[in-house]
Amino acid sequence: MSYKCSRCKRDVQLDEYGGVRCPYCGHRVLLKERSRDVKEVDVN
Amino acid sequence: MMVPVRCFTCGTVVGEHWEEFDERANEGDEDPQEVLDELGVDRYCCRRMLVSHTDLVDVVSPYQ
Amino acid sequence: MSAEYDVEFVEREDRDARFLVQGITPAFANGIRRAMLADVPTMAIDTVRFVENSSVMFDEQLALRLGLVPLTTPPVGEFVEDDTVTLSIDVEGPATAYSGDLVSSDDLVQPADENVPIIDLKDGQRLEAEADAVLDRGKDHAKHQGGVAVGYRHLQRVAAVEDLPEFEEPDRRIVRGVIEEDGELVPTSEFDHDLSNRYPGQEVTLEDVPNSFVFHVETDGSFSVEELVTRAADTIESRATELENAVQL
């Protein structure tokens, strides 16, 4: 899972020990990055 | 957000007239009625699509 | 059922026409109208694969917008119902992605309008997608509806009967469509849809001409009006044949 810190805009890897927190600036709001997969959508 | 591509009621493609309408009637000071007549948007269902539309892309883009 | 009928064009442009059909029943006129709306197959985008979309709109919203863009529909026989045509779009901000930016893999299927804004892209935003267009009918989704605002009215016959009293204020007499005046066809837009402009100071009578219908047909650009009407008639015929075969033992 890759996330991006909403304050310092750096990429963050979350692991099970660190909790939800940016290791660089300590900010607790992380944004999930869009997956690189090609997404198929039906028009309807 | 962006202009609807087609008129909700009749299905005419109205999106293609948006930029000219916006430039002349919203940014410029021409009479919207005359601009719509010249663009060939005749029915009131299609006219309201353009008259009542507001572009919101600039409003929401800072929150990306 | 009589086979004799007349078609006469009143106004004729590529995407917009008005024509008079005489000698058909109201049921048949309505059948044609409904066939034009729901039964003529047209091309439209049906699935979209998003490679990158960092714009302010969701993939699904953009997919719907792409689906509504009219595409030119190839001649009958070139494609069958399950064939697909791939179109791709790749626009990087700051710019606006237009329907004209769609690049088609087939020359017969192109965006009919090139100026429809799909999405406004800001600095650093990008839209890259690939779309499949399929042939389908208005019945299944409005995006496949080739005819827009298709309708008909009775042809109306106008005759002046007598002069109005000299000092009487004339009432407005609003008529829309096409009138017949001594055998001449006159669109009502010529006199601002008001008969009192054409017959000042006169009392006029207005009556429907039986079995004469003035169709007003517009297309979304998928094909010309002639093409739409003939294809609509063909779909009625093929369904009639199907019915005939089904009831024969």
From TrEMBL, chain A:
Give the UniProt keywords, A-Z.
Cytoplasm, DNA-directed RNA polymerase, Metal-binding, Nucleotidyltransferase, Transcription, Transferase, Zinc
Q: How is the cofactor bound?
A: Binds 1 zinc ion.
What HAMAP family would the database entry show?
RNApol_arch_Rpo12 (MF_00615)
The protein's annotated catalytic reaction(s) are: RNA(n) + a ribonucleoside 5'-triphosphate = RNA(n+1) + diphosphate
> How does it associate, per the subunit comment?
Part of the RNA polymerase complex.
Q: State its Enzyme Commission number(s).
A: 2.7.7.6
The enzyme class is transferase
Report one GO cellular component: DNA-directed RNA polymerase complex
- One annotated GO molecular function: zinc ion binding
State the species of origin.
Natrialba hulunbeirensis JCM 10989
The entry marks the following residues as binding Zn(2+), namely 8, 22, 25
Which SMART domains does UniProt cross-reference here? Answer: RPOLCX
* Cofactor list: Zn(2+)
Q: Which family does it belong to?
A: Belongs to the archaeal Rpo12/eukaryotic RPC10 RNA polymerase subunit family.
One GO biological-process annotation of the entry reads:
DNA-templated transcription
Instruction: Specify the signal sequence span.
Output: none
| Function description | DNA-dependent RNA polymerase (RNAP) catalyzes the transcription of DNA into RNA using the four ribonucleoside triphosphates as substrates.
Q: Which parts form a coiled-coil structure per UniProt?
A: none
Compartments in which it is found = Cytoplasm
Q: What is this protein called?
A: DNA-directed RNA polymerase subunit Rpo12
Q: Which Pfam families match?
A: Zn_ribbon_RPAB4
Gene name per UniProt: rpoP
Q: Which domain of life is it from?
A: Archaea
TrEMBL record, chain B:
Q: What is its EC number?
A: 2.7.7.6
Q: Name one Pfam family in it.
A: RNA_pol_N
Q: What does this protein do?
A: DNA-dependent RNA polymerase (RNAP) catalyzes the transcription of DNA into RNA using the four ribonucleoside triphosphates as substrates.
Any keyword Ribonucleoprotein? Answer: no
* Cell location: Cytoplasm
Q: Which gene produces this protein?
A: rpo10
MF terms from GO for this chain are:
DNA binding; DNA-directed RNA polymerase activity; zinc ion binding
Q: Which reaction does it catalyse?
A: RNA(n) + a ribonucleoside 5'-triphosphate = RNA(n+1) + diphosphate
Q: Which HAMAP family match?
A: RNApol_arch_Rpo10
- The name this protein carries in UniProt is DNA-directed RNA polymerase subunit Rpo10
Alphabetized InterPro entries for the sequence: RNA_pol_su_RPB10, RNA_pol_suN_Zn-BS, RPABC5/Rpb10
Automatic annotation (TrEMBL), chain C:
Query: Which domain of life, per UniProt?
Result: Archaea
Q: Which GO terms describe its molecular function?
A: DNA binding; DNA-directed RNA polymerase activity; protein dimerization activity
DNA-directed RNA polymerase RpoA/D/Rpb3-type domain location: 16-246
Keyword annotations for this protein? Cytoplasm, DNA-directed RNA polymerase, Nucleotidyltransferase, Transcription, Transferase
| Uppermost EC category | transferase
Q: Give a GO biological-process term.
A: DNA-templated transcription
Which Gene3D superfamilies does the record match to this protein? 3.30.70.3110, DNA-directed RNA polymerase, insert domain, RNA polymerase, RBP11-like subunit
Q: Name one Pfam family in it.
A: RNA_pol_A_bac
The reaction(s) annotated as catalysed by this protein in its Swiss-Prot or TrEMBL entry are: RNA(n) + a ribonucleoside 5'-triphosphate = RNA(n+1) + diphosphate
Its Enzyme Commission number(s) read 2.7.7.6
Q: Which GO terms describe its cellular component?
A: cytoplasm; DNA-directed RNA polymerase complex
Q: Where in the cell is it found?
A: Cytoplasm
**Subunit structure, per the record?**
Part of the RNA polymerase complex.
* Function per UniProt: DNA-dependent RNA polymerase (RNAP) catalyzes the transcription of DNA into RNA using the four ribonucleoside triphosphates as substrates.
Q: Which family does it belong to?
A: Belongs to the archaeal Rpo3/eukaryotic RPB3 RNA polymerase subunit family.
Protein's name according to its UniProt entry = DNA-directed RNA polymerase subunit Rpo3
Task: State the species of origin.
Answer: Natrialba hulunbeirensis JCM 10989
Q: What gene codes for this chain? A: rpo3
